[in-house]
Amino acid sequence: MNSLLLVSCNFSHHGSFLLLRSGRSCWLRTLSARLQISNNLRESYRLLQLPEGEIVSPERAKESFLRLAKLYHPDSGAPTADAALFARVEEAYRSVLAHHSAARRQDAAQDEDKDPSSGVAPQHRHYLSYEGVGSGTPSQRERQYRHFRADKAAEQVLHYRQREHERAAAAEGALVERDVRQRSRSIKLTQAVERLVEDLIQESMARGDFRNLSGTGKPLNKFQHNPYADPMTHNLNRILMDNGYQPPWVLRQRDIREAAARIRGELLDGRAGLGEPLGPTERLRWVELCARAEEALAKLNKMVDSYNLIVPMLQMQMVQFSLTREVRRAEEAAGQCRLEQRQRRKEERKRVNAANVAANSAGARRSLVSWIPSWLK
Question: What is the CA radius of gyration of the chain?
Fold first, then answer.
């Protein structure tokens, strides 16, 4: 319909025909550029936050790329830094520039084709050089080959940077995983050594190896002179210790241990008093007791956090208390208490039975002794 409208305008107004014809050529060029946009190019426009319905200038694409690079570049220091996303944005920017340069070359080729003075290379000379890239005159093919090589070099640089980013991310992940394994291994070894030393000390104490040590029963010389300590600091510490001063972390540790012992005692007494198995009423009472213990443990864990912040040595820090662990400990201790109570009751019954048997046998002997004289008479 537009062609008929333009032809009809040709017979009536020649000047309007030329203007409309030039506008039609621009419209067809824009339409052809729109039709050539692929799905990957649409994705590139979307990543660069550019409108898909129009041909953007390289300056506008560069501004959008720089704005996104400040957000996602791994060396920008921004909280939104993302190496993978920056690589995608950079690839999208290269694709948009390549599309723009291709459209510009196509427009230049169309303009040169419209020039009657421009010559056309013979068909057999089209693919004699420039790796078979491009079409048209040798100068046109040379320009197209230069653009092709520039785009290919940019694509290779982009792939190289992407591979470097992936390799760096993989190496960083491997280093982090290795550090975690080493730390966990060192912690396990330290804990194993500490348990071994504690077991050896307990065994030695049970055997009585520490009973015949020199100085047993004598007071410790706690103010022994230290040549490497400052005399003023030494005297101040001695004055504080003589007056009963204790560091804040020592007092906090004592409060934590007392509170933990109180909570464990309440759980143990409550569980031992409910019996086994639990009925509906006993279970409800046990749930209420656990809820109160949970509130107390929350306060106790806050004390543990404050203690860990002021304790001078890392090895003396404490872990937080868990309700599940304390409940399991209370149930196991209550079961052990019930077993001990049953054992004590059995032993008590045996003792009572033995006493009754002894009393009965003594009474029988006395009655026999009293009956013999009467029988002899």
Answer: 47
Q: What is the pLDDT of residues 226-247, one digit of tens each?
A: 677 777 877 777 777 777 778 8
The rounded distance, in Å, linking the Cα atoms of 43 and 247 is 64
108-122, 137-151, 237-251, 268-282: the lowest-pLDDT one = 108-122
For 272, half-sphere exposure in the C-beta direction (CA atoms, 13 angstrom radius) is 19
CB 119 within 8 A of CB 137: yes
Model pTM score:
0.34
Q: What SS3 string covers the chain?
A: CHHHHHHHHHHHCHHHHHHHHHHHHHHHHHHHHHHCCCHHHHHHHHHCCCCCCCCCCHHHHHHHHHHHHHHHCCCCCCCCCCHHHHHHHHHHHHHHHHHHHHHHHHHHHHHHHHCCCCCCCCHHHCCCCHHHCCCCCHHHHHHHHHHHHHHHHHHHHHHHHHHHHHHHHHHHHHHHHHHHHHHHHHHHHHHHHHHHHHHHHHHHHHHCCCCCCCCCCCCCCCCCCCCCCCHHHHHHHHHHHHCCCCCHHHHHHHHHHHHHHHHHHHHHHHHHHHCCCCCHHHHHHHHHHHHHHHHHHHHHHHHHHHHHHHCCCHHHCCCCCCHHHHHHHHHHHHHHHHHHHHHHHHHHHHHHHHHHHHHHHHHHHHHHHHHHHHHHC
- Residue 11 scores a pLDDT above 70: no
**Within 10 A of 72 (CB to CB), how many other CB atoms are there?**
19
Q: Which residue has the tokens 């109180």?
A: 262
- Return the half-sphere exposure (C-beta side, CA atoms, 13 A cut-off) of residue 162: 15
pLDDT in tens, 304-326: 999 999 988 888 899 999 989 99
Tokens of 288: 């209420």
Residue 243 CA to residue 241 CA, distance in Å, equals 5
Q: Which residue has the tokens 């410790």?
A: 220
Question: Which of the listed ranges 33-47, 175-189, 283-297 does the model predict with the highest average pLDDT?
Answer: 283-297
